[in-house]
UniProtKB/TrEMBL annotation:
Chain spans, region Disordered: 62-113
An MF annotation (GO) of this entry: cellulose binding
Sorted UniProt keywords: Signal
Name of the protein in its database record: CBM1 domain-containing protein
Compositional bias ranges of the Low complexity kind: 63-96
């Protein structure tokens, strides 16, 4: 079936203020932020996501405008033939090692998108309409670095290959067109797919062209599209934004992209992680596309966990997301969690349960998520339980963990103690864990509840969190844009805790 055009947008918001300086790795901006917006000497405030900017040492400043995400629209694609006058454009980057039979330089096609006579070229991309050659060249180097990482290093299918091409090693290989535009309806960036050629093309508002959280995010949609299997599948629909933010964050932060960034003069920048949503609303369905309340833009740390694979589960690691694309049952309309069950024999309940246990301290293998957690934790919403007396607690009805969601409950203690936890009356299958962190070294350990109970000796320099996740053995076929009553059925339970209190 011919692919549809994926139209994906990012709304714009702005938050400004002047306060005392924030420390290195401290927060310095974001929607709702009322603290310091300038950084201590030697660090710079770097945009991460709509709710968080961070003081990073030795970083180059980003614009003060912050971004928030919004709706996804799907329409049919078409082509508009355009007559253009070609101008001379120089290549701005060196050429990475080409995977397989890929040529060093792709062929431009000005008929993909509106075309134009003002453009700049690199081996794999063409940028039209940039406000300056420096902006175009900066964007091209950023895009080439992202391409080098995801195609050259991680082995994703090249977005230079048509969606319609079933023989990947012979091309044709076409440049990805990016159009820098003055405005988009409520958006900073958008990805389109051309019906006839099977090629993705992007539009980005001028001032966001060189911001990876916008342009690499949209390229992430393009790479997702060119992997082909998750296109026109309703149950993968909301995961498009999850994937795009994973791509943007991995490009910005990951050691996996360090060589590619270095090759094209790109620096590591602040993470996209939004812990106020990931942890504060951890009870939600693991990827939830509900209008205004969903988490599908913020749920990408789950993909990062699969990629960094700190628990060493079989089938996971560097190629985890690529394998989820490649092993998706074509045209099955299954969920990515169903594919995950085939990619790893560890079992989805175990994987999801440990992911949430590690999110207690953002200890998922991500290079900077733990630092962000330490700077934000005092402002996160942990109001999950109500006391029932006699050391017993139950989840608030509005925060019972939904499908593959969790309650994360930090516990208070004094000195060295033995903490005992017992879960009873659970209405659904669950995975529960005691997450323990050494406050001096930062090292973590995890104690699984067996038969509903566990005890752990917790040293005076350790902290402990109780985590319980809704992890049914039988996976549910659900559409994240239209949640069924089955996935919205929250896990009710009673937990008795001694040696510490929520």
């Amino acid at each position: 079936m011919a692919p549809s055009k994926e139209l994906l947008a990012i709304l714009l918001f702005q938050a400004v203020g002047i306060y005392a300086q924030a420390p290195v790795y401290g927060q310095c901006g974001g929607i709702g932020w009322t603290g310091a917006t300038t950084c201590a000497s030697g660090s710079t405030c770097v945009y991460s996501n709509p709710y968080y900017s961070q003081c990073l040492p030795g970083s180059s400043p980003n614009p003060t405008t912050t971004l928030a995400t919004t709706t996804r629209t799907t329409t049919r694609a078409g082509t508009t033939p355009v007559t253009t006058t070609t101008t001379t454009a120089r290549t701005t980057t060196t050429t990475p090692s080409a995977p397989g039979n890929e040529p060093a330089t792709f062929t431009a096609n000005p008929n993909i998108g509106p075309g134009g006579s003002s453009f700049r070229d690199s081996p794999h991309f063409r940028v039209y309409g940039a406000t300056s050659t420096s902006a175009a060249d900066a964007a091209l180097n950023m895009l080439e670095a992202a391409y080098s990482c995801f195609v050259g290093t991680l082995g994703w299918r090249s977005p230079g290959l048509s969606y319609n091409d079933n023989t990947d090693d012979d091309g044709p290989w076409t440049k990805i067109n990016i159009y820098s535009v003055s405005t988009l309806p409520g958006a900073a960036g958008v990805m389109h797919a051309d019906y006839a050629t099977g090629m993705a093309w992007l539009e980005v508002v001028h001032q966001y062209l060189t911001i990876p959280g916008v342009t690499v995010h949209e390229l992430g949609h393009g790479m997702h599209y060119h992997e082909k299997t998750w296109v026109d599948q309703g149950r993968t629909g909301a995961w498009w934004e999850t994937v795009a933010n994973f791509v943007a964050d991995t490009f910005k932060t990951s050691p996996l992209c360090a060589s590619a960034r270095s090759q094209y003069g790109q620096s590591a920048t602040a993470t996209e992680i939004n812990l106020s949503k990931v942890i504060g609303d951890s009870f939600q369905v693991i990827v939830d596309g509900s209008v205004n309340t969903g988490n599908y833009y913020e749920a990408w740390p789950f993909l990062a966990y699969l990629t960094y694979n700190p628990d060493g589960y079989s089938g996971l690691g560097t190629n985890a997301l690529r394998n989820l694309f490649r092993q998706y049952a074509k045209n099955s309309n299954e969920t990515p969690l169903h594919t995950l069950a085939r990619v790893s024999n560890a079992g989805v309940p175990i994987i999801v349960g440990r992911y949430w246990a590690r999110m207690a301290y953002a200890d998922i293998g991500h290079p900077t998520a733990g630092q962000v957690f330490l700077s934000q934790r005092s402002r996160l919403n942990y109001a999950n339980l109500d006391s029932q007396g006699n050391n017993a607690y139950k989840p608030k009805s509005a925060r019972r963990p939904l499908y593959m969601g969790a309650n994360i409950v930090p516990l208070k203690k004094s000195g060295a103690v033995t903490v005992s936890v017992s879960v009873s009356g659970a209405t659904l299958a669950y995975t529960a864990t005691l997450s323990i962190r050494n406050t001096s070294s930062g090292s973590t350990r995890y104690v699984n509840l067996s038969g509903g109970s566990a005890s752990a000796s917790v040293a005076s320099d350790e902290e402990i969190t109780f985590v319980i996740a809704n992890t049914p053995a039988n996976l549910i076929l659900y559409d994240a844009f239209s949640l069924s009553s089955e996935v919205k059925n929250g896990l009710d339970y009673s937990v008795t805790i001694t040696g510490a209190t929520p």
